[in-house]
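Schema walkthrough. Field components (list of strings):
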Amino acid sequence: MATRTEPSSAITGLDSLELDPAQTRTEPGRLARRSWAALWPKLIAIAIVLAAWQLFYLRNYHGDTASGLVKSPGYTLWLLGQQLQHAQLWQAIAVTVRTAVIGYALALLIGSAIGALVSRIPPLRAAVGSIISGLQTMPSIAWFPFAIILFGVTTSAILFVMALGAAPSIANGLITGVDYTPPLLLRAGRTMGLHRIALYRHLILPASLPAYVAGLKQGWAFSWRSLMAGELLVLIIGQAPSLGILLNTAQDNQDLSGAIGVMIVILVIGIVVDTVFTKVDLTIRRRRGLLVGTQS
Amino acid sequence: MSLTQWRDTPPEPAPGASAFPNGASATVAAPAAIRLTDVSKVYGRGPGAVLAVDHLSLTVGKGEFVCLVGASGCGKSTLLSIIAGFDSVTTGQVATGGHRIGMMFQEPALFPWLTAQRNVELALRARRIPKHDRRRRSAELLETVHLTGFGDKRPHELSGGMRQRVAMARALAQDADVLLMDEPFGALDAMTRDLLHDELERICAERALSVLFVTHNVREAARLGDRVVVLSSRPGRVIEEYLVPRTGPRRIDSVQVAGLASTITDRLREEMRRHGN
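Field assembly_structure (string):
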């Protein structure tokens, strides 16, 4: 059977030649080096901002620390450190994050449901497809008068606007994903005998995942912005203060350092969540080999 | 060995040949895996309608390897779609006699989010094979295509030839005894393609598969086919068939294969010239 063993050994040999040897290589300390490579540009950026701030402060410094509106970065960060030791800031963070989670969850449900329906039912797509895209261009802050008239000065008004701001992005992500399921894969799936629900579960949904995650990420950005706008506009009385209310108080007290402190907190929360989404997105794309030419 | 020896005249009293009004010659006496009878396919309606396939009859016998060659517009892909059930005929009949049909494309069409093994297992799952069986069977199928040890790789981590073999394992997982192949090696380099020809030949022999293999590559057709069917272009019609006797292992660079290939090429050019006028 020489004719049978010869080609098979040739083909396994070709396989090992064709596989990229770098692909399987793992270097010790690679993670640490990669983290550092990602970190130092950010540290330098922060240092530049702080330095500019300090310069601005020094130019406006007239020898009286207490009177000037602009405080030094050192003082502001110290103040933030102080506030982080008090319950009030943490409470405000908790209130805001809770609203964020509920609002985003609402948007997720509504957006996914609409996306699923619209991608499946062509007449529905013709009817609302362009409306969904149109809604995305509408600044969410324009919805607040409507929401306040409808729900009053309540958290519901904020949640309403958040859901409205984020749901179109999420729906659009899902619709795009379903639309761009490669026809060849659909054909392969049908040849395999995947139909209806199985076709959705094993092919269309996984195929649309990257676009869906992109929609989720964009939806988060929209809902987080709506939330901040909402907390500044919809001043709910008799509730534990949110981050927006702390900002408002700082504004009323001409407390620039206090405002900056809260803004830093808002920024950090935004960055953390965004990092999670980016990580998920990268993981999905790396698994599918969609990150060509990038170090991963 | 003269070239004319390859040229097939319809075998004398071909059984059932009278059923083919087009006289589409060589019918094999063995029971058919695929039988197309007087199939026509028209796309569109009215004055803009296009006749893609014109009264075409073709039989693939059980265990037979039939290659379809033709220039562009010969309706090869249409035919495969019709046999696979993606498309319907305008007139005529298609019989696949209850055979399970697997299909391979020019692209591997693997699901990029699944590992090689999972890709194969999904085909088993679609056939409702119980879970505990799937793992074992998929491992066996990967072994068949010489990919043992690569089951946990995702498609993008494999070379083009390896991906195409995973696709082959997946097609086999459909428990197919008929394989429809639409230029499956068209995107591969020549060296890989030659090795895959050997692999395909071995697997077909082991599993007694019937194959309808569409290709633009005349040499490939001469290398692989038990029979090479040449189609005319626009509309697609069988214009010539060449029976290739099985006389031991064939090589793509052998004199016999080259001889048949040049005969087929001449016939195809003649057909193309017809369209030039």
